């Protein structure tokens, strides 16, 4: 299974989701059975590490984001992943606008997995530090929900 997290800049929300979800997979011994990545819609931060505020908030919860680097959503992402998980409605719209005609990969709001069918992970970039903790609370909840679906889907294996 291959999962791509998508936000606007790929320096706050989606790298946080990538780090949190990967750590959950590692804790369950499932990391080798899934591909997890993140990207952004916009070009502004390509090549940069996650925002220091996102890194600090994640570090406080035992998640290291320092090795991640921002990239933009690319046409081949629609072939390389089994699901695209958007942080907010604008991200979802941008994904659909860039979808190649042949692509059938599902794109959904990530917080569906936290039991919030229409809710967004708020963009913390222009806010204060507390926004990053709220982002982490939401992302941790959705990551646990996603993990449950993945565990039900993946058969026991090596
Ligand atoms: P992200 O946050 O989408 O969660 O990575 C943002 C980062 C940068 C910008 C907007 C949102 N920006 O406008 O540069």
What does this structure look like?
The protein is α/β, with parallel strands linked by helices and 158 residues long. 39% of the residues are buried. The chain has one domain: Rossmann fold (3-Layer(aba) Sandwich), CATH 3.40.50. The chain has a four-stranded parallel sheet, sandwiched between helices. α1 links the parallel β1 and β2. α1 packs across α5. The longest helix is centred in the last third of the chain and has 24 residues. The chain contains five helices and four strands; from the N terminus they run βαβααβαβα. The two termini are 15 Å apart. The structure holds 4-nitrophenyl phosphate (4NP). The site of 4-nitrophenyl phosphate (4NP) has 11 residues, from loops. Belongs to the low molecular weight phosphotyrosine protein phosphatase family. Its EC number is 3.1.3.48.
């Amino acid at each position: 299974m291959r999962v791509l997290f998508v936000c606007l800049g790929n320096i706050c929300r989606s790298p946080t989701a990538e780090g949190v979800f990967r750590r959950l997979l590692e804790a369950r011994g499932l990391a080798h059975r899934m591909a997890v990545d993140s990207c952004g819609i916009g070009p502004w931060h390509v090549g940069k590490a996650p925002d220091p505020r996102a890194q600090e908030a994640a570090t406080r919860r035992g998640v290291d984001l320092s090795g991640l680097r921002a990239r933009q959503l690319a046409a081949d992402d629609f072939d390389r992943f089994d699901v695209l998980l958007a942080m907010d409605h604008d991200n979802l719209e941008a994904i659909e606008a860039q979808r190649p005609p042949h692509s059938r990969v599902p794109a959904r709001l990530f917080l569906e997995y936290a039991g919030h069918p229409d809710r967004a992970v708020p963009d913390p970039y222009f806010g204060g530090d507390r926004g990053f903790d709220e982002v982490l609370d939401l992302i941790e909840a959705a990551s646990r929900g996603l993990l449950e679906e993945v565990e039900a889907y993946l058969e026991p294996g090596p």
